[in-house]
Amino acid sequence: MAQIATLEVQTEIKSSADQFYEIFRSKQYLMPKICPEYIKGVQVVQGDWEAVGSIKLWTYVAGSSEIVKDTVEAIDDKTKSITYNILEGKNPDILQGLQVHCSGYDNGSNRLRKMDCGI
User: DSSP assignment of 11-56, as one string?
Assistant: First the structure.
């Protein structure tokens, strides 16, 4: 039987909300350089780096090497948020149909910003 659940994660990041958003909005190809211990590669399968409907293939490490294919469902430049849908992955029963929503916002500090990711 399917379960509906929500998981929210909030963490501080050492970049501005604009820089964080720009990476996820149009420069995801930089992710393997930003966190090489976790993300091994990302490539566009269909569309481009910026468009809603684009499909990307991510190779990451979560114990073992995994591959996930996602699509960009929504982009909101005003609120600096992006919503992804997971299309395929190693564990389709868990990942398929999963939706990830990420946004970055300033918390008033000159150095640290917040990142919200909800699954």
Answer: EEESS-HHHHHHHHHH-GGGHHHHSTTTEEEEEEEES-SSSTT-EE
Name the DSSP letter for residue 109. -
Distance CA 87, CA 85 (A): 6
| Token duo for residue 108 | 């008033």
Residue type, 11: T
CA separation, residue 68 to residues 15, 106, 111 (Å): 26, 29, 32
pLDDT, one tens digit per residue, over 46-93 is 999 999 999 999 998 877 778 889 899 999 888 888 888 888 877 656
Spatial CB neighbours of 68, under 8 Å, sequence gap ≥ 6: 57, 58, 60, 86, 88, 89, 90, 95
- The mean predicted confidence, pLDDT, of the chain is 78
Distance CA 10, CA 60 (A): 20
Give the rounded distance of the alpha carbon of 98 from its chain centre: 12
